[in-house]
Amino acid sequence: MLTTEQWIERAKNLRPKADLFIDGKFVSAVSGKRFDTLAPRDGSVITTVARGDGADVDAAARSAAKAFESGVWSKTDPRHRQAILTKFSDLILANREELALLESIETGHPIGDAMNVDVPSAARSFRWYAEALDKIYDEVAPAPRTALTLITREPLGVIGAVVPWNYPLIISAWKLAPALAAGNSVVLKPAENTNLASLRLAELAFEAGLPAGVLNVVTGLGAEAGQALGRHPLVDKITFTGSPAVGRMFQTYAGETNGKQVALELGGKSPHIVFEDVADIDACAEAVAWGIFYNAGQTCHGGSRLLVHESVHDRLIEATIKVAKQLKMGDTLDPSTQISAIVSERQLERVLGYLDIAKNEKVDFALGGNRVTPAEGLEKGYFVEPTILTNVDNAGRIGQEEIFGPVLAVTKFKNTAEAIELANASEYGLAASVWTQDLTRAHKVVREVRAGTVWVNTFDVADIIVPFGGFKNSGFGRDRSLHALDSYTALKTTWINLGSDEPK
Ligand code: NAD
């Protein structure tokens, strides 16, 4: 691993490509407009990015549709797609330092996490779907012997992938990998403030052999490029991850245009439910602290609520504070940093606003609560220290709303029924965890909690092998696993008349 000084030097010399990637090449926006992209660690301008709008989305969608119809990717032998996606995965790993730096400098993820989690995880997604794609068989339905009935899967066509800023590489890969593996063409619209790694990703896909037009990236503002993609008549499906408010806009865009499919993965307010018989308070405290402070709390399934039995409350809070105090907060480009910056000034203001609300709600600040400067030279950076709020009313704004920052809301409960009621008293249903040694109770609580993922005696174990998505206001789309591959295909029925059952 490079040193902090070496990473800073590399960041200074970065000359990232920041135009639109359409039809296999980088092009300026038709309007010629650009916008700044900033480094959360110090608020400095990294570069300017092309501000694509309706005209550029139209060019990208046409290119994607043309590539799809030509069959240059969609009709190829699965083993051809497998070979190219495997090479793409290898290229991601071969360019790990560059991709990690682009991701880290724009999102504020610690460089160590970008190197060890974001880039390898994105590479693994492409490899996993590449490996899967020639192992999936279609079906023959049990029709009478006078017919042969086939149920086959076909790619949908053009997929519009719209992603948020918190894990650009990982979330894009969760969508692109199955969509491409199934033979679709894609137009990716990254979030306004995190474009650079996605643009490089598309270039690497092209280098791996993905034909021009099969993967396009249109950078730009949500209300412009995002909306144009949502409304485009050549787009067959939108796969969206982001806020509930914008997710619903995509349903409206689809309803008002071509009725395209829309899959939504939205926010969360995921609870840990810790019972009095938790086996290991220290292990639980580790999971609770990492579950909310990793990536400075900007994780959709982050464990932002801690529901804890009153008898273990004080011990668990003490242990969690101990872990939180040991986490190293620092410069994004310092390889030893564990917690770094919030993505943008706007998000920083949002988090600080919630800390003011917390004061009004009269919760207790057991830890933190302030904006900080973790290292010299980063005074303009967007850093908030790990914060633990106790005596939170689950029905108040701190207990209900998604803060998306390093802020843990703690509420006590007295019994299992109350714990389940509190866990479900949320508009969200993305994830939860249950901490108990009682197997029967664990199973019962898992059944009762309305969430897309429930962990037992652990938290945030994420893997491409299992689906990820939510219930209720957390959306209904599912990324990851073979189910995601299915979601980028449509079923076709073929009914072949064989005439009489008599042998000829
Ligand atoms: P956001 O909804 O503001 O933006 C998401 C994407 O939508 C971006 O690409 C943005 O440019 C685009 N967009 C914004 N306004 C638009 C509009 N009017 N029309 C069309 N497109 C528009 O969300 P965000 O602030 O980038 O991300 C944070 C949110 O994402 C949080 O609520 C978080 O919980 C959620 N999230 C969910 C998951 C999940 O898997 N469920 C994962 C990560 C983040």
Short description:
Pfam families: Aldedh. The protein has 504 residues and is an alpha/beta fold. Helix content is 40%, strand content 19%.
Description:
Pfam families: Aldedh. The chain is 40% helix and 19% strand. It has 504 residues and is an alpha/beta fold. It has 2 domains: 280 residues, Aldehyde Dehydrogenase, Chain A, domain 1 (3-Layer(aba) Sandwich); 186 residues, Aldehyde Dehydrogenase, Chain A, domain 2. A 7-stranded mixed sheet has the order 14-15-16-13-12-18-19, sandwiched between helices. Strands 9-8-7-10-11 form a 5-stranded parallel sheet, sandwiched between helices. Nicotinamide-adenine-dinucleotide (NAD) binds next to helix 8 and helix 9.
The total tally of domains equals: 2
Spatial ordering of strands, largest sheet: 14-15-16-13-12-18-19
CATH topology of the largest domain: Aldehyde Dehydrogenase, Chain A, domain 1
Rg computed from alpha carbons, rounded to a whole number of angstroms: 24 Å
Q: Roughly what fraction of the amino acids lie in strands? A: 15-25%
Major pleated sheet? 7 strands, mixed
What gap, in angstroms, lies between the N and C termini? 72 Å
Ligand inventory? nicotinamide-adenine-dinucleotide
CATH superfamily of the largest domain: Aldehyde Dehydrogenase, Chain A, domain 1
Q: Determine the structural class based on helices, strands and strand pairing.
A: alpha/beta
- At the first level of CATH, the class of the largest domain is Alpha Beta
CATH architecture verdict of the largest domain? 3-Layer(aba) Sandwich
Q: Percent range for helical residues? A: 25-40%
Average of the residue pLDDT scores: 97
Domain Aldehyde dehydrogenase: 27-493
Keywords: Oxidoreductase
Protein name: Aldehyde dehydrogenase PuuC
Family: Belongs to the aldehyde dehydrogenase family.
